[in-house]
Amino acid sequence: MEHRKIYHSLCLTPSSKQIELIIEGPVAPEHLRTLQMHKDLDAFRRPKEQQEALIEIAELPEGRIIIARENDIIVGYVTFHYPDPIERWSEGSMQDLIELGAIEVADDYRGLSLGKKMIQLAYADEQLENVITFTTEYYWHWDLEKSGLNVWDYRSMMEKLMKSVDMVWFATDDPEICSHPANCLMVRIGKEVSHESVEQFDRIRFHQRFMY
């Protein structure tokens, strides 16, 4: 299985801030080691621990990290990797099934479309056309308090973000996703993915066969 990693970068100068931001990736682990994490990037782990996690993902053959940074400070990131072995999505060990995992942007840098720009950069030059990319959206991971959004507005925002790279809503009987109506599975099937892989993914999505 070929994992295409073609580095891209772009410069962003928001009119609302007197700063210059660099959005780049997939980022090599060596580069990540030279940077620092913004202190507010603590949604999943303490910033230093999260940086180590990003480095570990970047070292994986399939792993890719896209970042937004101001000088040498990482202010946002997106991760791509194989599903966690303990989750249903790892069933069958599909080589062409990649999870769009964590997305995080530091508080002071929200509202600049960094999440959208980072995700779009990941798909540049058809890098992910030979894989199925999926993401699982769970309302308990959403920053409802700081965003000021209710659960449905936040869900709408996340759907819009994923649709910017042509991900669409897919049905599933996964218990965690079905546990709340705001949770959802979003999927993008690359144009080079085989019909056999699509069928295998369908079997993973539904354990109750009568549902598909």
Output the helix-strand order: EEHEHEEEHEHHEHEH
Q: Helical segment tally?
A: 7
| Uncertain residue ranges | none
The average pLDDT is 95
Structural class call reads alpha+beta
Portion of residues in helices? 25-40%
- From the N-terminal CA to the C-terminal CA, the straight-line distance is 28 Å
Major sheet description: 9 strands, mixed
Question: What percentage of the residues does DSSP assign to strands (E)?
Answer: 15-25%
Shape: globular
Number of strands: 9
What Rg is obtained from the alpha carbons, in whole angstroms? 17 Å
Keywords:
212 residues, alpha+beta, 9 strands, globular
What can you tell me about this protein's structure?
The chain is α+β, with helices and mostly antiparallel strands and 212 residues long. The chain is built from 7 helices and 9 strands; from the N terminus they run ββαβαβββαβααβαβα. Strands 1, 2, 3, 4, 5, 6, 7, 8 and 9 form a 9-stranded mixed sheet that branches. A hairpin with an 8-residue loop joins strand 1 (8-12) and strand 2 (21-25). The longest helix has 13 residues, at 47-59. The relative contact order is 0.14. The mean pLDDT is 95.
Summarize it.
28% of the residues lie in helices and 25% in strands. With 212 residues, it is an alpha+beta fold. The mean pLDDT is 95.
Topology at a glance:
Blueprint: E1 8-12, E2 21-25, H1 29-33, E3 36-37, H2 47-59, E4 64-70, E5 73-81, E6 97-105, H3 114-122, E7 132-137, H4 144-147, H5 151-163, E8 168-170, H6 175-178, E9 184-189, H7 195-205
Parallel strand pairs: 3-5, 6-7
Antiparallel strand pairs: 1-2, 2-4, 4-5, 5-6, 7-9, 8-9
